[in-house]
Specification:
The chain is an alpha+beta fold. The protein is 37% helix and 13% strand. It folds into two domains: 4-79, Beta-grasp domain (Ubiquitin-like (UB roll)), CATH 3.10.20; 87-158, [2Fe-2S]-binding domain (DNA polymerase, domain 1). A hairpin with a 2-residue loop joins strand 3 and strand 4 (56-59). It is globular, with a radius of gyration of 16 Å.
Length: 163
């Protein structure tokens, strides 16, 4: 089986014997013990497995790990962590935007990608961006508020006017 070279959370990773058909999600969780991305549907439809590939939100369950060799992969763990939370993670905590937490990875990663390219999105834009991420617990209002809080904090930090 072939060797796999990845860049995950700004760290170069070399893995031996990774099957060509192995998904990025499988490699992240099983080989690298990164449990931020979750296995939800396995079809790229629920968003629980969302990671960033070169800064773009992507569904790790439907991406071949070998297909992203040489690209920068960021998981929830690489976005931020205790003592160095990403603004979106801080806002989700502040707004208590999690219940069971299963969708949390996907929501945070999708929101962070949105705010990186569109720092001050409208509530409608946020809803549209997160519409492909499923939350069964019903914390939709808190999630929307958390993304708005993160956008506002970023706007205040940069001194930019909201769009």
């Amino acid at each position: 089986m072939p060797r796999l070279l990845l860049s995950v959370n700004a760290r170069r990773v070399e893995l031996d014997d990774v099957p060509r058909e192995a998904s990025l999600l499988h490699v992240l969780r099983n080989d690298l013990s990164l449990n931020g991305p979750k296995y939800g549907c396995g079809l790229g439809q629920c968003g629980a497995c969302t990671v960033h590939v070169d800064g773009v939100a992507a569904r790790a369950c439907v991406i071949a790990a070998h297909g992203v060799a040489g690209r920068e992969i960021t998981t929830l763990e690489g976005l931020g962590g205790r003592g160095r939370w990403h603004p979106v993670q801080q806002a989700f905590e502040k707004e208590q935007a999690a219940q069971c937490g299963y969708c949390l990875n996907g929501m945070v990663m999708q929101a962070a990608a949105l705010l990186a390219r569109e720092p001050s999105p409208s509530p409608e834009r946020i809803r549209a961006e997160l519409s492909g991420n499923l939350c069964r617990c019903g914390t939709h209002v808190e999630i929307l508020r958390a993304v708005q809080t993160a956008a506002q904090a970023a706007t205040e930090a940069t001194g930019a006017a909201p769009a």
